[in-house]
Amino acid sequence: MPHPQLPPGFRFGTSTASYQIEGGVDVGGRGASIWDTFCGEPGRIRDGSSGAVACDHVHRYAEDVALMRRLGTQGYRFSIAWPRIQPDGTGPANQDGLGFYDRLVDELLAAGVEPMATLFHWDLPQALEDAGGWTSRATAERFGEYAALVAGRLGDRVAQWIPVNEPNVVTMIGYGLGLHAPGRTLMFDALPVAHHLLLGHGLAVRALRAAGAQVVGTATNHTPVWPATDSADDRAAADLYDVLWNRLFADPMLLGHYPEGFAELMPGPVEEDLRLIAAPLDFYGFNYYNPTSIRAPREGAENGGLIGDVEVPPGLGFEFVPMPGYPTTDFGWPTVPEGLYEQIRLLDERYPDAPPLYVTESGCSFGVGPDEDGVVDDQPRIDYLDAHLRAVEAAVRDGSDVRGYYAWSLMDNFEWAEGYTQRFGLVWIDYETQERIPKRSFDWYAAVIAANLRR
Question: Is residue 369 part of a domain?
Answer without folding.
Answer: yes
